[in-house]
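Q: what sequence does this backbone want?
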């Protein structure tokens, strides 16, 4: 029985020479370089970027895939949105280093992201992507036909996945960001320097 367990662990290590963990501040430079390599210099002008600009990702849902040497080889983030009045998460970007494709990095990131999202009580995830690829994770256009994005997009690429049955029922209208504003260095510095409020007598 013990030998059987050891064999299974060895096989997992052999087929998945990477680990999925929470994104760290030290990952930022490598993450940005990976996204540039995967999506090009114009990635900041894409439609879904409008839902991310100036917003913080959903708590616990910024994930990184790293090799044993510590090199970042994959990334995914999810963001709070309102999908036509329905609370949801927007997934993206999902990126994998070209040298590591075929190792299951993308699948592992997706599996962890969806598991964490469900554990944290989120009801639905939406993304803009290739329908045949994301169908394996349960995404479809079944309940996104009446939703819109703030910019040009291909209708068949707007996909949704319900983590809670009925979470996207009657979803209609514009998808808008609802995440917390991103704290910049300047805003953090201002908050540190701000004087303490003195209560006024009534």
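A:
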């Amino acid at each position: 029985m013990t030998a059987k367990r050891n064999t299974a662990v060895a096989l997992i290590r052999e087929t998945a020479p990477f680990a999925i963990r929470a994104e760290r501040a030290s990952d930022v430079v490598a993450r940005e370089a990976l996204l540039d390599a995967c999506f090009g210099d114009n990635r900041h002008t894409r439609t879904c970027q409008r839902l991310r600009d100036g917003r913080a990702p959903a708590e616990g849902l910024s994930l990184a895939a790293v090799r044993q040497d510590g090199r970042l080889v994959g990334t995914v983030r999810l963001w709070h949105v309102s999908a036509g009045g329905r609370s949801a998460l927007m997934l993206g970007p999902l990126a994998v280093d070209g040298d590591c494709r075929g190792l299951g990095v993308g699948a592992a990131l997706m599996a962890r992201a969806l598991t964490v999202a469900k554990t944290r009580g989120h009801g639905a995830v939406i993304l803009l992507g290739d329908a045949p690829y994301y169908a394996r994770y349960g995404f479809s256009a079944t309940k996104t036909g009446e939703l819109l994005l703030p910019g040009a997009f291909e209708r068949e690429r707007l996909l949704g996945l319900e983590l809670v049955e009925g979470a996207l029922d009657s979803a209609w209208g514009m998808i808008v960001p609802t995440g917390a504003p991103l704290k910049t260095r300047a805003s953090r510095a201002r908050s540190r320097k701000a004087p303490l409020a003195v209560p006024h007598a009534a």
